[in-house]
Amino acid sequence: MRNGQGHRGRHPFKEECKNRDGGKAQTFRRGRALAFLEKLTITRATLQRQLDDPAFEAIKPVISGELKATEAIMEEFIHVFQLHELPEEDIPSVEATAGEESSSESTNGSDES
User: Fold this and answer.
1) In the chain, where are the structural domains located?
2) CB atoms inside a 10 Å sphere around CB 43
3) What's the CA angle centered on 68, arms 62 and 69, to 5 degrees?
4) Which residue among 12, 33, 48, 56 is the one 20 to 30 A from 39 at the CA level?
């Protein structure tokens, strides 16, 4: 071996790997985490709306428990994936998601009248 470099000299890929920051994979994982957080936010909004709906009065304790569990999962998820530095517009508000759900439900072609 010559100068500890192996029989072919320095391998450029290994040098490149040392200098990479891995931003693409990290960005992808962060995007997936944000998508899951958005799904949890929509679930939370749905549960909140059901909790306020008199039609669900009989199962109100169950819905309340699910809402508390969903909020706990959201808080832990935000902490574990360090999503707490997000600006407000990145996490949809409960009111915005509830409005989007009701508009999407009315446009999906189901007539319940």
Assistant:
1) 22-96
2) 16
3) 90
4) 56
